[in-house]
Design brief:
This protein has helices at about 5-10, 40-45, 55-60, 75-85, 135-150, 165-170, 185-200, 205-220, 225-240, 315, 325-345, 365-380, 390-410, 415-430, 490-510, 525-535, 570-595, 610-620, 625-630, 630-640, 640-654; strands at about 20-25, 30-35, 65-70, 105, 115-120, 125-130, 255-260, 265-275, 275-285, 355, 385, 435-445, 450-460, 460-465, 470, 515-520, 545, 550-555, 560-565. It is an alpha+beta fold. It folds into 5 domains: about 1-85, GIY-YIG endonuclease (3-Layer(aba) Sandwich), CATH 3.40.1440.10; about 105-240, no CATH class; about 250-315 and about 325-410, Nucleotidyltransferase, domain 5 (2-Layer Sandwich); about 420-595, 2-Layer Sandwich (Nucleotidyltransferase, domain 5); about 600-654, 5' to 3' exonuclease, C-terminal subdomain (DNA polymerase, domain 1), CATH 1.10.150.
Length: about 650
């Protein structure tokens, strides 16, 4: 089952709250879920087969897993709600309707404001707080503003001329602004200001006062009042604990960039905040290995590809690294380069929000140039800022944590070693870029019998079994009467044939072409492979041969072979790929030999299918008995036409 292929990734997930997303091979989100502990929750899917048809269908279709770490389960729930509404995954049932979690609206646009429950944030004169999860917390908070501050809850037009207050004043849930003699407009304004401070989360002083009042009430044996104050304290503490980075109306429209830089590459996470809510998370990756004191061209390796014109390198002032820079300055410079490339490419096809938040400050000249470019594209002012504190910095820190998690998932220690090996190969073979995709060929035969070939694919240091291919060598150069010979002894011709067949098909399909072709063999096999590539017009592809005994690398451009150290990661990677190609070829060769040994001479007779072969062997008992049978005996079993074909075959042998 495909979910089992994600087992290694699941084992590396953190035991932190967050959101997980399953997607199919086409990248479409199938399911969005929240978790108190991501590893435990996602791991439960490994044994979820048979729980329900919906879960079974999800497990069959899921190919990829993404996670987003949050600070609390409440944040995970809010983010889950937003992502489900944004992506509409087909296997989600809950939180898929048009409802939103409620906000509290302080109607500061009115002369005598009220506190109301709102389902959406509007651009008006009112103040909004929230969202509140669960929804009952919003109504508890609204009721608390009535008890603590005496906010009115009626729909009456307040003029101050009412003769007497209503029942809400008598039960101490309103300070009665409707009666001017009891509460003036200025006094009610103070209550409104206190309510706004409370909704903004500035509740430390309020809690101290409430605890004192609760103690006084308990000492005076006013236990009902003490219980009400206790409930109020609990509600305020719950609100304080549930302040959310993932969804707050004060954040407006902005994008926050988180960055994780390491020896194997870099990961950039972009949290897109719209109308105070994180509506999307986009991941950009560079697989160029980074090292202290060495700069990279990260803008050329970031994915997705750039889609629009942007400031050139000369305009940005990006040049070669200065040899005088210290290691710390070099790392900081690399961070700036990656962030510059990320901002440039991310907004090449997207409209920038009013603010872009970065974890580190870019050089002033680069910041001004990028702001001017983004402002021109958006037709309004766009600012690049580096928040230092508060909710904005909190969201940046959260994006950085998710970038670090994505880096660990994508570039674990083994993968980092693979990239070191690929970098070594690039330098040794003089390749223009990292050989991220390597295809390796091997021939397997015993004295020319049942000659077969294999091709295996290694991408980013990982073997891609789904793209392995096996070939029956037809002996194209030895074909006689369109029937392949029984034995093919020319190993060079076999290599020529399989390379020609493979890349002729790739030409028809339009790729993908490898960055490096490995040939199991020496100069002879390598020359045969290059001859096939030249016939196809693909001489620009780079191939290398590896000899088994000396473990030497042969190339077309060097007379002498290349000898890598026995413990070199590059040699170990090549050996692993070569051994996998050899294993795959030998396995296929053994299958062919076993099939040949189990074949009957009747299989070679044209026009005799499996059903008639079985009928003859059942009726006569053996091949020898079939050979001795008369035409009349054969006609009685398989018919006249088939009987004549059998007799003709045996006659030609004699």
């Amino acid at each position: 089952m495909p979910i089992q292929d994600l087992k290694a990734q699941i084992a590396r997930l953190p035991e932190q709250p967050g959101v997980y997303l399953y997607s199919n091979g086409a990248g479409e989100t199938l399911y969005v879920g929240k978790a108190r502990a991501l590893r435990d929750r996602v791991r439960s899917y490994l044994g979820a087969q048979g729980m329900s048809p919906r879960i079974d269908a999800l497990l069959e279709e899921a190919r990829h897993l993404e996670v987003i770490v949050t600070d609390s389960v409440v944040e995970a729930l809010a983010l889950e709600n937003h992502l489900i509404k944004q992506r509409a995954p087909k296997y989600n049932i809950l939180l898929r309707d048009d409802k939103n979690y409620p906000y509290l609206q302080l109607t500061t646009g009115e002369a005598f404001p009220r506190v109301l429950v709102a389902r959406r944030v509007e651009k008006d004169d009112h103040y909004y707080a929230g969202p509140f999860l669960p929804a009952s917390l919003a109504r508890k908070t609204m009721a608390l503003t009535h008890r603590l501050f005496g906010m009115r809850s009626c729909n009456e037009v307040i003029t101050g001329e009412r003769s007497r207050p209503c029942l809400e004043y008598d039960i101490r849930r309103c300070i009665a602004p409707c009666v001017r003699e009891i509460c003036t407009e200025e006094e009610y304004g103070v209550a409104v200001q206190h309510t706004k401070l409370f909704l903004e989360g500035r509740s430390e002083e309020l809690l101290v006062d409430l605890r004192g009042r609760m103690g006084d009430a308990a000492s005076a044996e006013r236990f009902e009042q003490a219980a009400q104050l206790r409930d109020a304290i609990r509600t305020i503490e719950t609100l304080r604990q549930r302040q959310q980075k993932m969804s707050t109306t004060e954040m407006g429209d902005r994008d926050a960039f988180g960055l994780k830089l390491g020896p194997a590459g870099a990961v950039v996470q972009v949290f897109q905040v719209r109308h105070g809510r994180v509506v999307e998370r986009v991941e950009l990756v560079t697989d160029v290995p980074t090292a202290e004191g060495r700069r990279q061209k990260a803008e050329e390796r970031l994915r997705p590809e750039r889609g629009a014109k942007s400031p050139s390198e000369s305009e940005r002032g990006w040049g070669p690294a200065s040899a005088e820079k210290s290691g710390q300055n070099a790392v900081a410079s690399t961070e700036c380069e990656v962030l510059q490339a990320a901002v440039e490419q991310f907004y090449a096809e997207r409209e920038a929000p009013p603010e872009i938040h970065l974890p580190v400050a870019l050089p002033d000249a680069d910041t001004e140039l990028l702001e001017a470019w983004l402002t021109d594209r958006a037709s309004r002012r766009v600012r690049i800022v580096v928040p230092k504190r508060g909710e904005k910095r909190g969201l940046l820190d959260l994006a950085a944590r998710n970038a670090a998690l994505a880096y660990q998932t994508r570039f674990n220690e083994t993968v980092a070693a693979h990239y070191d090996a690929l970098e070594t190969l690039r330098a040794v073979l003089g390749l223009p870029s990292l050989p991220r995709r390597i295809e390796c060929f091997d021939i397997s035969t015993i004295q020319g019998a049942e000659t077969v070939a294999s091709m295996v694919v290694c991408e980013d240091g990982r073997m891609k079994r789904g793209e392995y291919r096996k070939f029956r060598i037809r002996g194209v150069n030895q074909m006689v009467d369109r029937h392949p010979p029984s034995r093919i002894l020319d190993d060079f011709a076999s290599m020529h044939e399989v390379v020609h067949r493979r890349y002729r098909k790739m030409l028809e399909q339009g790729g993908p072409f490898p960055d490096l072709i490995l040939i199991d063999g020496g100069k002879g096999q390598l020359s045969a492979a290059y001859q096939a590539l030249e016939e196809l017009g693909l001489a620009n592809l780079v191939a290398a041969g590896i000899a088994k005994k000396e473990e030497l690398l042969f190339t077309r451009d060097r007379v002498d072979p290349i000898a890598l150290a026995s413990d070199s990661p590059a040699l170990l990677l090549i050996q692993r790929i070569r051994d996998e190609a050899h294993r795959f070829a030998v396995t296929f060769h053994r299958q062919r030999r076993a099939r040949r040994d189990l074949r009957s001479e009747l299989d070679e007779i044209a026009g005799v299918g499996p059903r008639r072969r079985k009928a003859m062997l059942t009726a006569f008992g053996s091949l020898a008995a079939v050979r001795r049978a008369t035409r009349e005996d054969l006609v009685a079993v398989v018919g006249a036409k088939c009987a004549d074909a059998v007799l003709a075959h045996f006659a030609s042998e004699r």
